[in-house]
Amino acid sequence: MDLNTVTEFAPATRAAWRDGDAWLGGGTWLFSQPQPRVRRLLDLDAFGWAPLRETADAVTVAATCTLAQLARWRPADRHFDGAATLARQCCHALLGSFKVHNVATVGGNICLSLPAGPMTSFAAALDGVALLRAPDGTRRAVPVAAFVSGDGRNALRPGELLSHVSLPAAALTARTAFRQLSLSAVGRSAVLVIARRDADDGTVVTVTASVPHPVQLRFPAPPTPAEALADLDAVMDAALDATGPGYLDDVHGAGPWRAAMTRRLITETLGELAR
Boundaries of each FAD-binding PCMH-type domain copy (predicted)? Predict the structure, then answer.
């Protein structure tokens, strides 16, 4: 795509945000369609962020980390191996060639905020926190599960930048079960469910792709499938009562089918964790 309205390209480290700017990470979405309001691109590579930083307390993923880099992550702490496996599963859920995976970034996928965004699924399932930076230098932290508020909508304010996602060790050491469904073998995710069981047996079920924004079910002890599905129904009924959207219904999957498959995958993931 020829962005013929863009007249300037600048390193993000040396440019003050102004109207008409766009942060440039991998650019796989930015260059895929016309951007008539964009006048200048601010290159995030200038920050030189390490793709991943691993400590005993957390793993910090830079917004500029590519999906290929995340998929190649082999933790120094072997207790994080399950999280690395989940990372690869989520990376492979992205519909795209190896060329896309070598350019598309974790931060870009989350900020695009599509329901099927697998980096949103990954970060939300592991209680990831989005670290945001405003043009005036103000910083704030928002849980990724709350960062995405709808199809293409999120908590970003004008000029705000997602710099990193922090994943806490307590979630990184948990057991996880992953399920994903599409209408075709290489189609966009229509349903994606990740169930997580922590060391204290607390259980978190994260649903994405079939709903406009992440839906999380939390339990202090492993729930039965019936208990989890009852909670899911309550959450979805509350969304409808608030005149909000329920299950997505589009070319990637009809609403009733997505609802049925969501229930099926929740049952499967909880069954896997129970074994």
Answer: 1-172
Each residue's pLDDT tens digit, 200-254: 999 999 999 999 999 999 999 999 999 999 999 999 988 765 545 689 999 999 9
Q: Which residue has the higher pLDDT, 98 or 68?
A: 68
Give residue 218's pLDDT: 98
DSSP characters over 129-179: EEEEE-TTS-EEEEEHHHHEEETTEESPPTT-EEEEEEEEHHHHTSEEEEE
Q: Contact, 79 vs 170, CB < 8 A?
A: no
Q: Which residue type, as a one-letter code, is found at position 175?
A: R
Topology classification of domain 175-274: Enolase-like; domain 1 (3.30.390)
Cα 226–Cα 252–Cα 189 angle in degrees, nearest 5? 65
CB–CB of 61/51 below 8 Å?
yes
Residues 107, 161: Cα–Cα separation, whole Å? 9
pTM above 0.85, yes or no: yes
